[in-house]
Each structure stands twice: as structure tokens, then as C-alpha cells.
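check this:
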Amino acid sequence: GGVAGSAFPPPRVEGERRDAAEVERLLEGARREVVGMKEKCEMMVEAMAAMQEAARESAREREVVREEAAATLVAAQGVLQAAERERLDTQAAGAAQARWGRQVRVLFY
């Protein structure tokens, strides 16, 4: 032991206590770092989940837009076809009228 009647422990014991305190301090620091890393990882996982959800929503929106575009195209094609039929009908009616006009002229003139 130390000097008789001395309040100080022997230097070796004091050194071991210091080492133990240092190890405890390092462990506490490491523990805090691990907790911090865990929190960061959790935040990253949440952010990735949010990004995936946003991507899914974006894909759904693109699908809706694609469907609307397809429907618009079909409607436009329908309008074009109707216009084409109308043009052909008009031409046919015009041709019939012209024929009828010629026949009338032949009959009456």
C-alpha cells in the first residue's frame, strides 16, 4: 500500500482507475456514435421509403397520363374517321347531284 496514514491510494491503483474511467468514456462515446449512426440509418431508410413511394406515385401518374393520351388519340382518330366519312359522303352526294344534274339536262334540254 501507500504511505501509512496517507489519504492517497498507491499510484498503480490511481492509474488503473484513470484507465478504467478512460475506457468507460471511450465506450460511452462509441455508444453515442452507434446511436447516432443508427438514427442516421433509420432516417435514410425512411427517406428511401419516401422516395420509393414518390416513384410509385410518379409511375401511377405517368400511367394515368399515358391512358389519357391514348384515350385522346382514340377520340382524335374517331373524329378523323368521321370527318373522312363525311368528306366521302359529301363527295358521293356531290357526284350523285352532278349525275342527277346531267340527267336532268339530258331530259329537259
Notes: The chain has one helix and no strands. The chain has a mean pLDDT of 87.
